[in-house]
Amino acid sequence: MSEEMESPRITVFYDGACPLCRREIGFYRRCGGADRIRWRDVAECDPEILPGGLTRDAALRRFHVETADGRLVSGAAAFAQLWSSLPRFRAIGWIARQSLLVPVLERLYVLFLRWRPALQKVLARS
């Protein structure tokens, strides 16, 4: 059995109502290995499928991933988990998970969140 077949499955929670998020997730879903990931559109899913401690509001505000061992991570750490699960991005995921880099990436993610509403409006028009 190949390493990809043995790798544990993660669950990605994303805002499918956000045009920016929809495009980005669409890109990842077309990547090799994406079929091993559970994709949950929080804007449309039953709130009861959300893991304990994750509300729909929180899931719509920030990107979340539930790891194979049940840990819930968000923001930059969630992207690092997603990247690590896709063969094409595995090296980037490993780099992003390094302890010195995580706080830097999280600050950049928080900055992005401030610009997200404006970016959503631009993408909604296109």
Secondary-structure element order, N to C = HEHEHEEHHH
Shape: globular
Low-confidence parts lasting 5 or more residues at pLDDT below 50?
1-5
Number of strands: 4
Helix run count: 6
Major sheet: arrangement of strands: 2-1-3-4
**pLDDT average, as an integer?**
89
Q: The biggest beta sheet, please?
A: 4 strands, mixed
- Looking at how many chains there are and whether they match, the oligomeric state comes to single chain
Distance between the termini: 44 Å
Structural category: alpha+beta
Tally of separate domains: 1
**Rg measurement, Å:** 14 Å
Q: What is the strand content?
A: 5-15%
| Helix content class | 40-55%
Can you describe this structure?
With 126 residues, the protein is an alpha+beta fold. It has one domain. 49% of the residues lie in helices and 11% in strands. It has a 4-stranded mixed beta sheet, covered by helices on one side. The protein is globular and about 35 Å long. The termini are far apart.
Write the layout of secondary structure elements.
Elements: H1 3-6, E1 11-14, H2 19-29, E2 38-41, H3 56-61, E3 64-66, E4 72-74, H4 76-85, H5 90-96, H6 102-125
Helix pairs in contact: 4-5
Entry summary:
This protein has 126 residues and is of the alpha+beta class. The protein has helices at residues 3-6, 19-29, 56-61, 76-85, 90-96, 102-125, and strands spanning 11-14, 38-41, 64-66, 72-74. The protein has one domain.
